[in-house]
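Subgroup meeting minutes
Present: P.N., E.W., G.H.
Scribe: E.W.

1. P.N. recapped why we're keeping a running log of single-chain structure predictions: easier to compare across weeks, and new members can see raw inputs and outputs side by side.
2. G.H. added today's entry (299 aa).
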Amino acid sequence: MSISPNVPSPEESYRYESTGTPRWIPVLFVVLFVGIAALGYVGYSGISRLEQSLAKEQDQDKVLTAQLEQANARLADLKGHIEVTEQKVGMTVSELAQAKSRAESIRKEQVESDQKLTAQLSQVKKESQEQIGAVATEVGGAKKDIEATKSDLEATKGKLERATGDMGVMSGLIARNHDDLDELKRRGDRNYYEFTITKSKNGEKVGPTQLTLNKTDPKKSKYTLTVLVDDRTIEKRDKTAGEPVQFYVKGASRMAPYEIVVFDVGKNQATGYLSTPKDVGASAAAPAAPAAAPAPTKP
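Output recorded in log:
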């Protein structure tokens, strides 16, 4: 069998293939692939870690941003408080200045008021001293008047005297006029009823009695009257001014009769007083009218 000169033999082919593709090349590709895979893994891991770090940094940035915003808000609040405080402090300073000015004005007004008050007190003191002097003078004059009045009273007491009444009983002190009667009233030993009665047919009530003036004689200072008491009438005829006219009432002591003293006799009237004991001065009441009274009883 002939072999073509252009076709290699198996040994040649083997030899040719052996010399055409070296074995280290695939190994190199494998190593390169592994290296590339390792580099890819390392790169991926680095990127992952970088992304995680970046996420953490972003979270920290958010936290820091929130804290910064809170800090800014607090700073804004603090700034507002500071501004308000400054305004209040400014107002306080202004108010203090106004208060100081007002206090100074008040002090000046107080000084002026004290000066006026001192002047008024001096004037009042002066006037008081003058008034005290005048009062002392008046008191001295009043003292003299009192002493004079006392002397008059002593003289009046000296004029008062006792007399025996028309019933033979010694009377108390007798008043001769209105002033004497006032002195008797001040003594208060008996009840006294002053009267001025006019001549008429109808009686006039005097104390616990009713008196009717029947007749007067001014020239002789004599009079006649009728007394109505205890439902009986007592006529006193031709009595003289200053004479105690006496009569008794029920329950009265025989030593303490009622007394009438007339100290002035006019043309148609008589002025005097009725004197009654203290214990029975108001016990006897006069009747309403003398018309039904029994006949007069003479003393």
